[in-house]
Amino acid sequence: MMDASCVCLAMRPMLTSVSTASRPLYRRLAAEYVQAMGLGTLQLGEKMPSVRELMRRHQVSLSTALQVLRYLEEQGYLEAKPRVGYFVRDARTPLSGSLALTSEPDLSQPVQPNAQAHFVGINEHISLLLERGRQALVHLDVGGCTPPAALFDHRYLNQLVARLLREQPTLLVQGRSLLANQGNHPVFQQAMARRALATGIRVAPADVLATTGNSEAVSLALAAVAVPGDMVAVESPTYYGLLQVVESLQLQTLEIPCSPRTGLSIEALELAFQTQPRLKAVVVVPELQMPLGTRMPDAHKARLVALCTRYGAALIEDDSYGLFVEGAQPVKPLKAWDSGLGQVIYCQAFNKSLAPGLRQGWMNGGQWHGRVQMLKFAQSRNTQTLGQLVVAEVLGSPTHQRSLERLKMQLKNQRESMARLVARTFPVGTRMSLPAGGLCLWVELPDGFSSAALFGQALEQGIRIAPGSMFSNSGRYEHCLRLACTQPVDAVMEQAMQLLGSMACAQLGQAPRS
């Protein structure tokens, strides 16, 4: 069981379920106040007892009283207001107490590089699961993580596209010439370089390469730095699309344990570098890692860049979810720690945060940028211009900023509502974490549970989920699943989650939760 002092503040995991006697005093006191919130004794917006009052009421030290308040704040139950005190943040639905933070991999024993080093047939496995989902009569999808159209400002985007086409009536029928920087529009390049500068990335506009989403960018990056038979390190678990790309390029894949607090294990990666001479690249999602939702601390980012630089390996950064991070603090990408050597290949896409239909992205290939450009032109020629112009004008505009904040708030509310449903309906012993942003929850059920079996049962009921086996080829996540939080949590969703929870309980021989 992980101590709360080790939990990254941004993660706000669920309170853990352990025996009363084994929990520290501050955790036992915190649990009492959570119960009071669930009963309605402490209501939303109500002020918590002060530190002095907690000390008097429970006969505890100043340190213990502070730990109670800070722990409840970390878990998302309280909100601190400077010079005023702590206030109940959300006590609408009591958490069951059966959920804990997603369990940590054993990072003290680094992964053995030869174990499951080469994915065999992962493409076929994933494709079969996706095809089964497509062929089924699905009325509710909690497997896919693309936000629905209703969460985007389509009127604003439509008006912008109409204006661009009025101003440039030949935009859709005029191809970009070879002299026009291989289809990279200078307006887009300038906008992306300027925006990157605000996050600590220094890149010339001419070195911005427009891509069709992020999958193309990561594929180009891998093709530029490795040849068939070379090895690529990935986070475990990781997005199944990356596993498909790696296998299609005939590369070997090495899974590196990923912590829900700090991300990819640097110690395990260093061991891999020491023992695997063909390890040529590392692919990471440092912000809101898919599917765990981890935010990699800045100190960890700096160590990771330094390690890859020392071993001469390409560090491919997938920044697909950085715009979804909650909070006022600016997000600093890995690329911001890159030296003049250009060891980090930066990839960013806006299809989930701005317009799924555009699939517009960009990348900078670092020291491999020239080769990336060559591969891009050889494989897919020019990226369409309209999407580049739309993104260049929309991204960072006041209208888009307001739209993005609304999107993030809606996703946050849906994530928290889904977490409460999981807490109320899933089997005792279920673990999960609640990330500070993003589109999904990663749920770990007790040993003996089969997410593949639940996938088949759920499809028969018209519900699509994403079983854990899609996110690794090691077999270690069969008892896990990813739940998307992109749909509204209404009566239909509540009924579906109740059904999923009941089927999961039945599989483990437990009585339905509610």
From TrEMBL:
Keyword Nuclease attached: no
Highest taxon above the source species: Bacteria
GO molecular function: transaminase activity
Keyword annotations from UniProtKB, A to Z: Aminotransferase, DNA-binding, Pyridoxal phosphate, Transcription, Transcription regulation, Transferase
Domain HTH gntR-type, first and last residues per copy: 23-91
InterPro entries cross-referenced by the UniProt entry: Aminotransferase_I/II_large, HTH_trans_reg/aminotransferase, PyrdxlP-dep_Trfase, PyrdxlP-dep_Trfase_major, PyrdxlP-dep_Trfase_small, Tscrpt_reg_HTH_GntR, WH-like_DNA-bd_sf, WH_DNA-bd_sf
Stored CDD domains: AAT_like, WHTH_GntR
Pfam family, one: GntR
SMART domains listed in its UniProt record: HTH_GNTR
Family: In the C-terminal section; belongs to the class-I pyridoxal-phosphate-dependent aminotransferase family.
The protein's name: PLP-dependent aminotransferase family protein
Native organism: Comamonas avium
Lineage, uppermost ranks: Bacteria, Pseudomonadati, Pseudomonadota, Betaproteobacteria, Burkholderiales
